[in-house]
Amino acid sequence: QVQLVESGGGLVQPGGSLRLSCAASGSIFSIYAMGWYRQAPGKQRELVAVIFSSGSTNYADSVKGRFTISRGNAKNTVHLQMNSLKPEDTAIYYCNAGPPSHWGQGTQVTVSS
Questions:
Q1: Contact (CB, 8 A) for 12 and 111
Q2: Nearest C-alpha neighbor of 17 from the set 88, 91, 104, 111
Q3: Do the beta carbons of residue 68 and residue 51 sit within 8 Å?
Q4: CA-based nearest residue to 67, from 42, 97, 46, 98
Q5: What is the residue-level pLDDT of the chain in tens, covering all 113 positions?
Q6: How many Cα atoms sit within 13 Å of 99 on the Cβ side?
């Protein structure tokens, strides 16, 4: 089992920045990929960014050039640096690790003036 704890959400104005963090505990040796998903009201959960154990990354087209996913100094942490935030980035952001898939509790990100 893997437990995930997210932090760093909040309210920010358009154009601002936020940094999300996710710390994994438990059977972290089995983790192949860690990533961030988001779910806006009335919409399906979607992939935002993922980083694999090799260090390679993938991003949703909507966040390319604005968001950066990275691992912390400890391999069990992952960060999402979000710059140039837009109102459409407003969602609950979930940390994910696997396989098999494990989810954090989610953290709210609100982009509004």
A1: yes
A2: 111
A3: no
A4: 46
A5: 889 999 999 999 999 999 999 999 887 777 889 999 999 999 999 999 999 989 999 999 999 999 999 998 777 899 999 999 999 999 999 999 988 899 999 999 999 99
A6: 0
Nearest in space to 85 (alpha carbons), one of 5, 9, 4, 7: 9
Instruction: Report CA 22 to chain centroid distance, whole Å.
Output: 8
- Which amino acid, residue 62? S
Compute CA distances 36 → 3, 45, 61, 113, whole Å. 15, 10, 14, 24
